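protien #1 (seq + structre)
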Amino acid sequence: MLLSKNLAPLRAAALEKIDNSAGEVRKRFITSVPGQEMVYQQKRVEAELLMAQLDVAPAEIPHIVAEASLNGITPYDQAVVVLTMSQQWMVISAQIEETRLAAKQAVAAAMNPAAIELASTIDWSAYHA
């Protein structure tokens, strides 16, 4: 028990290291700006609404309409772009999360400082945008 107690600060630091490194990897795929996540979520909601109701009023999908206009495409095509990007993010996000959680599990099981350090050092090189 004493060994486990002595390792608690190392485990805590390792868990923080894992979370921070996962956050850095996520930034390779998403915009890390305050509020931007909410914009992306709104675009997805609007894109889903358009797909469910093709005659939706433009005022109900302002993000999609504005971006489609800027891109010179139809709102429908913009909705396809948004939903495709969202699907791609879901796939990579799940992979990052699995890696992050597995590393945390390995830290919890590690029995000495070297094992904790090894468990918290993730090779993220396979994750590139």
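ok now protien #2
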Amino acid sequence: MSRNTMHGRALWRGLVLLVLLALAGGLAYVWQDFSRFSQTPLNVAAQGQSIDVGRGSSLKDIVAQLRQQGVSTGQPLYWRLLAEQGRVAGKLHAGEYALTAGMTPRDLLANMAAGKVLQRNFTIVDGWTFRDLRQALVKADKLRQDGAELDEAAVMQKIGAEGEAPEGRFLPETYAYVKGDSDLDILRRAHAAMSKTLESLWPQRDKSLPLATPYDALILASIVEKETGRADERPRIAGVFVRRLQTRMLLQTDPTVIYGMGESYAGNIHKRDLTTDTPYNTYTRPGLPPTPIALPGKPALEAALHPAAGSELYFVARGDGSHVFSSTLDEHNRNVACYQLKRCP
């Protein structure tokens, strides 16, 4: 073999080695860059960011959306490699996904593969009226408004409670929802929760209660709810109203009068309001009002079904959120003079 031939082969082997080294170096760089990409948090600029993946969206579509939102500058190839590596390619679910600080591309793909869509919370507050509830639903973020334009009867028909008066029928608590859910979905769940709660509490009630039905308990609980927000007072206030019902005394509770005034209530209640008869005026009509006057929470329901024993028939607000109780009219009048008229002896 000639010296020239040996030199040519050596040169060729050197070139091949250089090419292989270059390829190895390139692959090492790509792998290092890919690893950096997969572990580097996405560019989440503000709290509350999300990505909405439509039905039928491909990984390419998702990556394009992320790049358009400025969340990721990663190459589409890297996203494809990451999906293949995590065995989630072709398994990404449609829906809205939260983009949170510190989230990596791997985290986001894992959430999409598991269908961990973004959940929001809607809280029904103890003591809201049904009107308050509907106004809050309209303002809820990303909640579809299917019932906003319906009247109350139509809303109740839509949620499977046709013929029911809506007031008081929805349990105050926090309900999670996802994009695509509607106001009617929340109402349907809250209605079912109240029905289930009443169904479980009613059989364990104090048997001497002057309440004929679970609905009577719901009405009484709504009055207790509006009279006090203090946990320690709910059973005592319920006891006052139960004894008044048992002795056929008028309930004489201002919140029912206010409810009966409707939109004419301007923040203050006057003597003429107490004497103006409405179906909800418990100064002019005996017994419970025809419907609840608010949405009572579970503690108010429990208080109505298990009122405190005693002889108290009256209470008056102290002005600090608490009440002073009394058993006689004379004592009550003294308390009114002291705490409402500021004529304490």
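Residues 51 and 259 are 44 Å apart (CA to CA).
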